[in-house]
From TrEMBL:
It comes from Shewanella salipaludis. NCBIfam families: GABAtrnsam, PRK08088.1. This is 4-aminobutyrate--2-oxoglutarate transaminase. GO terms for biological process: gamma-aminobutyric acid metabolic process. Belongs to the class-III pyridoxal-phosphate-dependent aminotransferase family. It comes from the Bacteria. The keyword Transferase applies. Keywords: Aminotransferase, Pyridoxal phosphate, Transferase.
């Protein structure tokens, strides 16, 4: 009996916990660059990139070769038991790439959630404070401490009870929904008046461009005001660049475009081209606030993932992918903005570099029903898309930076056809 998407979905439903979601009822057989083939042989253009993990595409030849070469040597020792040079090399590279004209140190882990939780651990150890300020609609992961920082209940913490205390929520600036930079700063001051003194706050954490929250972009002015506040009050500024990092926004880290540097930067996703690797890079004196044994993990900084990360960084340099992110982003925004002329439901096209999204509204209100229909229609036509946003009413595009223009344009044409089928101008 032939293996089909339907047969695998039936097996999945019987074997896999229902809490593990799956956006598309498709099972992958193979993939290359920005193309995926399912188990039935159907071809798709990938505008999802494994949720921002594949900036260098599926199985970039250089990444594939680097991992294969590492496999000829060893796959694991646990860096905390027996070290290896590639871990040190990755830390050296990140110390150079992360913004900030100060001495830096890094530590490597597996997932974005681990990076976030360890950043908070470091900030608490350095400041001797417990409180953290996060933002509405922010997404920082699904583990318990990261989940407390994540500003969206359903589906991430629904039914799990209240998350840990000492997290306070400020407003993230969003002009489309009436939250100005002044409003956002005032919401932090309200926390200081109503909930916790500045001297109780260890860190303020935010995404320079919100990912799951809807691709809202913080302005350089807002980020500079946050930096000044943190400097004044002795608070650590943590930039969660798990989704924005590794070149997606046109600079290796989005904070390079904000005019300030964070005290601690979190990275993951595309840093290793599809292999599990995350980490934090911060001021050396801050990072050293935790002594030996306080940071780490059995698989953190895997030799295979470190080999992949070093290859990814080389690919960015050799193929000029930062410049590509800017031109690709312009291509995407131009096409989507043109579609706004035909579809008034496309309320706003936004993003930074090639991290691009469009928000759908109906009568001025979020329209998640349109997003769900567009995703299904696009899948039927051979295009994989993602939605995001607090209300699920934002279409996001995270196509590999290595995708050729012709394929990107075909994907955009399919999207235009889908809008016509669903929105019917």
């Amino acid at each position: 009996m032939a293996t089909t998407n339907d047969s695998l979905m039936a097996r999945r439903q019987a074997a896999v916990a229902c809490g593990v979601g799956q956006i598309h009822p498709i099972f992958t057989a193979r993939a290359e660059n920005a193309t995926v083939w399912d188990v039935e042989g159907r071809e798709y253009i990938d505008f999802a990139g494994g949720i921002a993990v594949l900036n260098t595409g599926h199985l970039h030849p250089k990444v594939k070769a680097a991992v294969a070469a590492q496999l000829d040597n060893f796959s694991h020792t646990c860096f905390m038991v027996l070290g290896y040079e590639s871990y040190v090399q990755v830390c050296e590279k990140l110390n150079q790439l992360v913004p900030g004209e100060f001495a830096k140190k890094s530590a490597l882990f597996n997932s974005g959630s681990e990076a976030v939780e360890n950043a908070v651990k470091v900030a608490r150890a350095y400041t001797k404070r417990a409180g953290v300020i996060a933002f509405t609609s922010g997404y920082h992961g699904r583990t318990m401490a990261a989940l407390a920082l994540t500003g969206k209940v359903a589906p991430y913490s629904k039914g799990m009870g209240l998350m840990q205390a000492n997290v306070f929520r400020a407003q993230y600036p969003c002009a489309l929904h009436g939250v100005s930079d002044d409003d956002a700063m005032a919401s932090i001051e309200r926390i200081f008046k109503n909930d916790a003194e500045p001297s109780d706050i260890a860190a303020i954490i935010l995404e320079p461009v919100q990912g799951e929250g809807g691709f809202y972009v913080a302005s350089p002015g807002f980020m500079q005001r946050l930096r000044a506040l943190c400097d004044r009050e002795g608070i650590m500024l943590i930039a969660d660049e798990v989704q924005t990092g590794a070149g997606r926004t046109g600079t290796f880290f989005a904070m390079e475009q904000m005019g300030v540097a964070a005290d601690i930067t979190c990275f993951a996703k595309s840093i290793a081209g599809g292999f599990p690797l995350s980490g934090i890079t911060g001021r050396a004196r801050v990072m050293d606030a935790i002594g030996p044994g306080g940071l780490g993990g059995t698989y953190g900084g895997s030799p295979l993932a470190c080999a992949a990360a070093l290859a990814v960084i080389e690919v960015f340099e050799e193929e000029q992918l930062l410049a590509r992110a800017k031109t690709l982003g312009l291509r995407l925004k131009t096409a989507l903005t043109k579609l706004q002329d035909s579809f008034p439901q496309l309320a706003e096209v936004r993003g930074l570099g090639a991290m691009v999204a469009v928000e759908l509204l109906a009568d001025g209100k979020p329209a998640p029903q349109y997003c769900a229909e567009i995703l299904a229609e696009a899948r039927a036509r051979g295009l994989i898309l993602l939605s995001c946003g607090t209300y699920g009413n934002v279409l996001r595009i995270l196509v590999p930076l290595t995708a050729p223009d012709e394929q990107v344009d075909r994907g955009l044409a399919i999207l235009g056809d889908c809008l016509g089928a669903v929105l019917k101008p």
